[in-house]
Amino acid sequence: MNGIELIEKLAKSQPKINTMIMTILSKSGYIKRAIKAGVGGFVLKEAPSGDLIKAVNHVMQGTRVIDPELAICTLGDCDPLTDKERKALLLASQGFKASEIATQFFLSKGTVRNYLSEAMAKLNAANRIDAARIAHQKGWL
């Protein structure tokens, strides 16, 4: 489970909890997904300690804090993938076959192939592995 998945899970089980991500990643897709998941703060690990303390205090008070450098980054690429395409692509990148992905999500093999084909088309990728590589580089996986 990655940080965003953890925040999504926490948001469902403990909706009043305040969360914050400290990262070295400045990928727009990752940042946008974290914000959508309900993260309260998103700061760079290399920020001065005073800034980090202020950010933690603001998040604890319920104010959303996003490092300006990270905020600017989110104005870039938009993630064209649906959640289903993203999940199928992630499993495909881990070596799962379409039939195995279908079993895991209780879908038909054809539906999974459609998700993967759509993801490949949206990312202008040569194949599903190339699509996963592109999506991962952009922070969408």
Based on the model shown, name its key terms.
141 residues, Arc Repressor Mutant, subunit A, mainly alpha, 58% helix, 3-stranded parallel beta sheet, 2 domains, 8 helices, Rossmann fold
Short description, anyone?
The protein is mostly helical and 141 residues long. Helix content is 58%, strand content 7%.
In CATH's first tier, which class of the largest domain applies?
A: Alpha Beta
Average predicted local confidence, pLDDT: 87
What form results from the Cα inertia axes? elongated
CATH level-four homologous superfamily name of the largest domain: Response regulator
Going by helix content, strand content and strand pairing, the class is mainly alpha
The H/E string reads: HEHEHEHHHHH
Total count of helical runs of at least 4 residues: 8
**How many beta-strand runs?**
3
Which blocks of ≥5 consecutive residues have pLDDT under 50?
none
The CATH architecture of the largest domain can be given as 3-Layer(aba) Sandwich
Q: The biggest beta sheet, please?
A: 3 strands, parallel
Distance between the termini: 12 Å
Strands of the biggest beta sheet: in what spatial order? 1-2-3
| Rg from alpha-carbon coordinates | 17 Å
Number of domains: 2
Do you know the CATH topology of the largest domain? Rossmann fold
Strand content: 5-15%
